[in-house]
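Quick illustration, no need to memorize.
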Amino acid sequence: MEIAFCRIDDRLIHGQVATVWSKVTGCNRIMCCSDEVAKDTLRKKLLLQVVPPGLKGYVVPVEKACEAYKNPKYAPFKTLFLFTKPRDVVRAIKGGIPFKSVNLGGMCYKEGDTLISQAVAVGPDDVKAILELLDMGVEVEIRKLASEPKGDVMAALKAKGLV
C-alpha cells in the first residue's frame, strides 16, 4: 500500500478533504483510522456516504489500518490516511505504517485545549503525541488548506508556551 498523505482532522472526510486533498494527493482510497469512529455506526455510515466518486472509503480501528497496510493484497492502494488525533498516528507508526510526514489540518477546540493555529487546538496528550512524532523523525506540519504553505508545529507550540 502506498501512502498518499496522512492528515489529522477530527472531521475526517468533509468538503475540503473530498474536493481538494483527495485530488492533490492522487489517492484512490481514503482510510479513516479511529477506534471510536469505527464503533459509531451512524458516523461511519455518514463518512462513507461522502467519499468522492471514483474513490473507495473505509472507516477502521487503528489496528485494522495497520494490518491492511501490511497486507500485500492491498498493494495497489494509494491511500489518504485520516486520523482524529495525534495519539492514533503514533499508534499507527508503532503498528507498522511508516509515515514520514503528518499534516495537522483541523482539531476542534475542547475545554482545556490551546489554539495553536486558526484550525488546530491541542490538549496535553496531543502535545505529548506531537513531540513523540517529532522524536521519531516524522515531519509534523500545520496546514488547513492544500494551497497554504506548511506551518511549523514546533514554532506554534513554543509560541503558546506548550514546550
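The chain is about 40% helix and 25% strand.
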